[in-house]
Specification:
The structure holds 2 protein chains of 2 kinds. By secondary structure, chain A is mainly alpha-helical. Chain A has 20 helices and 2 strands. Chain A is 71% helix and 1% strand. In chain A, a hairpin with a 2-residue loop joins strand 1 and strand 2. Chain A starts with a helix and ends with a helix. Chain A has a two-stranded antiparallel sheet with strand order 1-2. By secondary structure, chain B is mostly helical. Chain B has a domain at 100-272: MetI-like (MetI-like fold, Orthogonal Bundle), CATH 1.10.3720.10. Chain B contains 14 helices and no strands. Chain B has helices at 34-65, 88-95, 101-132, 138-148, 157-166, 174-184, 191-198, 202-210, 215-226, 228-244, 247-252, 262-271, 279-299, 301-314. Chain B starts with 33 loop residues before the first helix and ends with a helix. Classes of the chains: A mainly alpha, B mainly alpha. At the A-B interface, helix 9, helix 11, helix 12, helix 13 and helix 14 of A face helix 1, helix 3, helix 4, helix 5 and helix 6 of B.
């Protein structure tokens, strides 16, 4: 099919055509993906090979300063006058050595590394009244990962150290001068400014995001739960058991519940995203309509739900909808209902209620965003449409909507994944309730994956399953992102509104 | 178009104040017809109803905060207006020795102030670097942050808890601990301000560089003064977030009541055990938290709108 044929299709068959194209393209894309991985691995091996070759060559050709630097990092730099760099290298090496081979053996990196394969073998036991602590699996795993990080960083720094020596030698041989420490410091405010700015954030993210994430991914392969809690108990590697427990559907597993919670999570994310999107846009259009007065006041009133901390507003609203809350008591007082509406105790009611209350929270955001975008739509479009005799709805369908979708496509995507992880609304409103015997693992009918994960962590201390769930949430988000991102460019091309 | 000669009576989505649109002159046809008036009337009705729905819970909250827990009831009751207006709840919150409210308030304020400063510095450094400077590994950093962002935040909660515990920053040390956690990874939220920096013309940097300014000087003296809206937006967001955080705060401060933040303390009043009698105190506490935050937000609303719309458009 060529471009002309495509343009002749109607809207629906265009979509069908695109979907077909997408799914037909999957095998090809998968093949390309694995080919890419293969190429990457080959490149990696080749790269390491050439690095080693270079290290050997530098050693062979280098002078004694360079050679000594292989053992004492930074020596070459310091000996050639760059004492600042030399000192940093040396300090790093010292810290690394102290950490790895500390005299008190039970705290050194080597100790943790050695125990990593078993996560500890010595049980904690009681000797009369005293508790004698054995291995602590948690710290073995945590510091084991940290040690691996450290070793990788060391290898990288050591390689830099070697490169540095080679470079310095070349520069000196060609008769130029090396940069002094003063120059180095100056360059941190100039050529190397990015290093200055990124140093702290990178450190923070590495220690407080990357390290914990890798740790938790590893926990998914252990039996770390309420019955295996350090320091009194050990936990150990169990392979894919936890994934099996969460996903398989026999009675002792969580498979059925997981399926239901995942389905509800996706339904929730769909409504929370698109309902808010369209209603928010509608409200923005109404407020911005010519002739409507007090625009600023309407906006400010709606924005109140953003301004007031959610734990105040949502907790209060959840109490309003409770069986003995304001809404039920007043409806009963007026004689509209005989018994309280089960807002939080009936599964369907609870699900509808959270979605509706989320509209209350969500419309103002979309209203603000839509207002900004609507103002940017070229006025001529509407003018010419009006001259052609288009009515309000037609203009909306042919101009406003395509323009909004075109501009906010990426936003819709992030907001969809954001809603999958929308913890606050569910947690503060329903807390995941109502619970049910039909759902295992303490899950309730309004629980999203993320609130279920929270329950597993906090009330059940079932860390292993929480970790598996975290990985699965990641996979869901990643797949949605990949799929939709692949589609967005094609969507964009279509949205050529003249 | 089929309805060729029909007169369009409703024009939509055009902001009059912004002046984006020139008036379309269609004399005689533009006069307010009955239809137009009916449409506007409908819109006003919808807006008024919406305003009521949007404001009602907050008005109720205020009403109930004035119901005395001594002479009436501190729990949930079947009527809205207090029979007798009283300040008992507020007095209890602020003066009773069993109430930790002022302490919680102070804790949260300290956390919020530190976060506002540190997070803003972090976010600005990262976003400026990724937007304006070109260096090896820039794309890699952005991709890594994208992938990391897809992991749910609570996944790492226990790890962070034990990391903090190692540093002695839980329970008694919960406040510095929370500041550390909130700030450490804040650099990952750089998208919106990067989007802003992207819109500042590159030629500004270049001409300053030609005049001999270092990159640090360009950042401090040229870009920063231009970035005032996004700086205020970032400060506002960083300052507001700690007021609403229940999850991490309750986990890190677990069991140490003097170290709660307001969200944890008030949440426990409403939801844990037998705290029903504390409902009106929760309302009063909620009012005391919400009023200054809301006032601040409304005062800086302009910057918030700029940030949010910019962020959505950039994606």
């Amino acid at each position: 099919m060529n471009d002309l044929d495509y343009l002749k299709l109607t809207g629906l068959s265009k979509l069908a055509y695109k979907c077909r194209q997408f799914f037909c393209g999957i095998p090809k894309k998968l093949a390309a993906f694995f080919l890419g991985i293969g190429r990457f691995l080959v490149k990696l091996v080749m790269g390491i090979g050439s690095e080693i070759k270079d290290v050997a060559a530098t050693f062979a050709n280098g002078d004694w300063k360079t050679k000594l630097s292989y053992l004492v990092m930074g020596f070459g730099s310091a000996a050639r006058g760059q004492w600042g760099r030399g000192l940093l290298f040396f300090l790093f090496q010292t810290v690394f050595n102290v950490y790895m081979f500390m005299p008190n053996a039970s705290f050194s990196g080597c100790y943790y590394l050695g125990k990593l394969s078993t996560l500890g073998t010595i049980e904690t036991y009681r000797e009369g009244r005293k508790t004698v602590y054995g291995d602590n699996s948690f710290f073995i795993l945590l510091y084991g990962v940290l040690t691996i990080f450290f070793i990788l960083a060391f290898i990288y720094t050591w390689r830099m150290n070697v490169k540095q020596n080679k470079l310095s030698e070349q520069i000196l041989k060609s008769g130029k001068k090396l940069k002094s420490t003063k120059d180095d410091i100056k360059s941190l405010a100039d050529e190397q400014f990015h290093k200055t700015l990124l140093a702290l954030p990178t450190l923070g993210v590495t220690v407080f995001t990357i390290l914990p994430i890798i740790f938790m991914i590893l926990v998914a392969f252990t039996n770390f739960d309420a019955t295996h809690q350090p320091p009194s108990k050990l936990f150990t590697w169990v392979g894919w058991d936890n994934f099996r427990q969460l996903l398989s559907s026999d009675s002792a597993s969580y498979g059925n519940t997981f399926g239901q919670v995942l389905l509800w999570t996706l339904i929730w994310a769909f409504f929370a995203t698109f309902l808010n999107y369209f209603l928010g846009m509608l409200v923005a259009i109404m407020i911005n309509k010519k002739g409507i007065k007090l625009k600023k006041m309407w906006r400010t009133i709606l924005v109140m739900t953003i301004a007031i901390p959610q734990f105040v507003s949502l907790l209060y609203v959840s109490k309003m909808f409770a069986a003995d809350g304001l809404i039920n008591t007043y409806l009963m007082k007026w004689g509209w209902i005989a018994s309280p509406i089960p807002f939080w105790t009936d599964p369907v009611w609870a699900r509808v209620t959270v979605i509706v209350i989320n509209v209350w929270i969500g419309i103002p955001y979309l209203m603000l965003i839509a207002t900004g975008i609507l103002m940017n739509i070229p006025a001529d479009l509407y003018e010419s449409a009006r001259i052609d005799g288009a009515n309000a709805f037609q203009m909306y369908k042919k101009i406003t909507l395509p323009y909004m979708l075109f501009v906010t496509g990426p936003y819709l995507l992030t907001s969809f994944t954001g809603n999958i992880n929308n913890f606050n609304v569910i947690f503060l409103l329903s807390g995941g309730k109502p619970l049910s015997l039909e759902l295992s693992g303490n899950a309730g009918y309004t629980d999203l994956l993320i609130t279920w994960l929270y329950k597993m962590t906090v009330s059940d201390t079932n860390y292993k399953l929480a970790a598996v769930m975290g990985i699965l949430v990641f996979l869901v988000c990643a797949v949605i992102n990949l799929v939709v991102y692949n589609m967005i460019p094609s969507v964009k091309n279509e949205e050529d509104f003249q | 178009m089929s309805k060729k000669n029909e007169v369009p009576e409703v024009d939509i989505v055009i902001d009059h104040e912004a002046g984006v649109i020139r008036e379309v002159k269609q004399p005689g046809l533009r006069s307010k017809s009955g239809h137009e008036r009916r449409v506007n009337g409908g819109i006003y009705t919808v807006l008024v109803i919406m305003s009521i729905i949007w404001l009602a819970p907050f008005v109720f909250l205020v009403f109930q905060s004035f119901r005395s827990y001594i002479t009436e009831s501190g729990g949930m009751v079947a009527y809205l207006l207090p029979k007798q207006w009283s300040l008992d709840n507020y007095i209890w919150l602020l003066t009773d020795e069993k109430s930790h409210f002022l302490q919680w308030y102070g804790n949260t304020l300290i956390i919020a102030l530190f976060c506002a400063v540190i997070q803003t510095l972090m976010v600005l450094s990262v976003s400026y670097t990724l937007s304006r400077l070109r260096f090896k590994g820039r794309k890699l950093i952005m991709n890594v942050v994208l992938v990391l962002g897809m992991f749910p935040g609570f996944l790492t909660m226990i790890t962070l808890y034990f990391l903090l515990k190692q540093l002695g920053l839980t329970q008694q040390g919960a406040i510095p601990g929370l500041i550390l956690i909130y700030c450490a990874s804040s650099g990952m939220g750089y998208y919106i301000s990067k989007g802003f920096f992207d819109t500042i013309p590159k030629s500004l940097d270049e001409s300053a560089r030609i005049d001999g300014a270092t990159r640090a000087q360009v950042f401090m003296k040229i870009i920063m003064p231009l970035a005032k809206p996004i700086v205020i937006y970032t400060i506002l967001m960083a300052f507001m977030a700690p007021w609403g955080d229940y999850v991490f705060a309750s986990y890190v401060a677990f069991g140490s009541e003097p170290n709660y933040n307001v969200a944890v303390g008030l949440y426990r009043w409403v939801n844990v055990n037998d705290y029903q009698g504390f409902f009106t105190r929760f309302c009063a506490g909620g009012v005391l938290v919400a009023v200054p935050i809301t006032a601040l937000f409304l005062a800086l609303q302009k910057y918030y709108v700029e940030g949010v719309t910019g962020g959505a458009v950039k994606g």
